[in-house]
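[step 3/7] fold_predict: job queued, chain A
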Amino acid sequence: MTSLETQPCPCQSGRPFDRCCGPVLTGERHVATASQLMRSRYVAYVLGDAAHLRASWHPTTRPARVAIDESIAWTGLEVQSSTGGDLFDDQGTVSFVATYNHNGVAGELCEHSLFTRVERQWYYVGPVAIS
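[step 4/7] structure written:
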């Protein structure tokens, strides 16, 4: 049986997990862009990694506790667009659709997320309204 490390990353980047979100979740590597952080957070939901979700949440909006709903199976991710959020930006947004299965019922989460960079570290701030 093949381990997750050699499988395609759940973020659907097309890269192996061990060269994509794996090192981010273990803390071996920091993300360079807001989009990379969003992808790693999706993978954290897939794998049930509440610690990564909490650590990557901006302190001003971070909940006291991050709960993973184990009855939700995340099944896909499509990044629709992004603005800013690159190497030399301090803020960025990422719009995505994440599909899931909850107790046998398919659904999707659509979000336009705000990210901010503090001292070379990207953080998820929260969803923003699209104007």
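[step 5/7] annotate
The radius of gyration is 14 Å.
The first strand starts at residue 72 and ends at 84.
exit 0
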